[in-house]
Predict the 3D structure of the following.
Amino acid sequence: MNIKDFKTENNEEKVKQTYEKYKNYSQDELLQELMRSVNAQKRNGTFDKERLLSTLSLVMPSLNSEQRRKLEELLSHL
């Protein structure tokens, strides 16, 4: 997942594609994929924490309290 994908003119299509790609992932797999993406962006110098937080704020309302807590814990280590 590339956070930059959500900042395009064709946002709706990118969201659909991303959903299709990750819809069968478990919660743990999604978190691992997020961390892989963040680490790769940090390595190549493209990581933008504010952009990540902005994008994740879109999904936070759909998470239950335990999922939000887990994601917030991960984010605190970035």
Observations:
- The mean pLDDT is 82.
- The longest helix spans residues 27-44.
- The helical segments are 11-22, 27-44, 49-59, 65-75.
